[in-house]
Amino acid sequence: MSNKNRFAFFGGKIVPIEEAKVSVMTASFNYGTGIFEGIRAFWSEKEKELFVFRLKEHMDRFLRNSRFLQIHLPYSSDELCDRTLELLRREEYKRDAYIRPVAYKSSTVIGVRLHDLEGACTIFAIPFGEYIDKPDGARLKVSSWRRVDDNAIPARFKIVGAYVNSALAKSEAHREGYDDALMLASDGSLSEGSAANFMLVREGVLITPPVTDSILEGITRRTILEMAAREGIPAVERSVDRSELCVADEAFLCGTGVNVVPVTGVDGYPLGEGKPGAITTRLGKLYRRAVRGEVGEYRRYCTPVYGSA
Ligand SMILES: Cc1ncc(COP(=O)(O)O)c(C=O)c1O
User: Fold this and answer.
1) For the whole model, what pTM was predicted?
2) Within 6 Å (CB) of ligand 1, which residues are found?
3) Ligand 1 center to 42 CA (angstroms)
4) Please, which residues have CB within 8 angstroms of residue 253's CB and are 6 or more apart in sequence?
5) Burial class (CB in 10 A: 0-12, 13-18, 19+), 215
6) Given ligand 1 and candidates 132, 140, 197, which is best to mutate, with the most ligand atoms within 8 Å of its CB?
7) Collapsing DSSP states into helix, strand and coil, what is residue 80?
8) pLDDT in 10s for each residue of the chain, 309 residues
9) Are the beta carbons of 53 and 254 closer than 8 angstroms?
10) Which domains occur in the chain, in start order?
């Protein structure tokens, strides 16, 4: 990708991307002690407007998670939202984009810890299409790697170092010809994908693991649960057994990266009828319209970058 017209929020201001650099001695680079976010902006051809989806919720989570790692950033959530919009305007985005805020321990010292270290943050954006380009259904592998445990590295905080766990699972799945991994929590219950939450449908009921089953508390997950409630689709948050994959009617992954991707097979076996199910398709279509500002009820979640109302 060319760096022409590319910028980052770095050191408190927007700078050309080449200037957004950290030292190899940076504590986060050595120990994984950082927090990141993933946010999407969707281009609406109809309105000639770029909408950032649930920007404020992402920045609130970013600051909350950063505090967990004792990174106290000198910005409010609103300031980070403003900087993000400014960045997208500077880059003149008129296509779907992915925004990556990262908070990190910026001190250049050796010694693993959280205390007595400086913190900093950066935000950059890249053009982004589908993360898992499988509209007709992804095939997952139940990973041999267990999801990081809450008493080891809490999955809910989006900690940089914790994504080694996701990377191990994703690459194992890829190596064996699958599209993504499905991870079990340390007690064997179903947790989530390598970078997305997991939902299944049994007899018309949407089921997803609770936030206490070693998952990232996904913003898309919350959006889908809200959509299900509005659409009159019953939904429960409860632990899911691995064997329920064999009796589920439908399943899907959801997350900022993947949007909504139907899951049609696990471990080489078809899931349900082996094709995207009716509830998955309905919620997936609604979600994809909502993020582009096309659905009234969810318009409040869409922040315009260039200023349309
Ligand atoms: C491990 C993991 N689970 C779930 C999600 C989905 O979270 P969100 O909907 O907040 O993007 C992500 C990020 O996209 C993730 O990395």
Assistant:
1) 0.96
2) 38, 166, 192, 195-197, 216, 218-221, 255-257
3) 17
4) 132, 138, 140, 180, 193, 196, 197, 198, 199, 260, 261, 263
5) buried
6) 197
7) helix
8) 677 789 999 999 999 999 999 999 999 999 999 999 999 999 999 999 999 999 999 999 999 999 999 999 999 999 999 999 999 999 999 999 999 999 999 999 999 999 999 999 999 999 998 888 899 999 999 999 999 999 999 999 999 999 999 999 999 999 999 999 999 999 999 999 999 999 999 999 999 999 999 999 999 999 999 999 999 999 999 999 999 999 999 999 999 999 999 999 999 999 999 999 999 999 999 999 999 999 999 999 999 999 864
9) no
10) 7-127 (3.30.470.10), 138-290 (3.20.10.10)
Residue whose CB lies within 8 A of the most ligand 1 atoms, among 153, 163, 220, for a mutation test: 220
**Mapping DSSP to helix (H, G, I), strand (E, B) and coil, where does residue 102 land?**
strand
Give residue for tokens 């194992």: 172
Ligand 1 center to residue 39 CA distance, Å? 10
What gap in Å lies between CA 32 and CA 52, rounded to an integer? 28
State both tokens at 60: 């609130």
Q: Which two tokens stand for residue 110?
A: 């050796």
Tokens 């899951």 correspond to what residue?
263
Give the Cα separation of 209 and 167 in Å (integer): 21
For a substitution probing ligand 1, which of 130, 217, 224, 256 has the most ligand atoms within 8 Å of its CB?
256
CA–CA separation, 26 and 83 (whole Å): 24
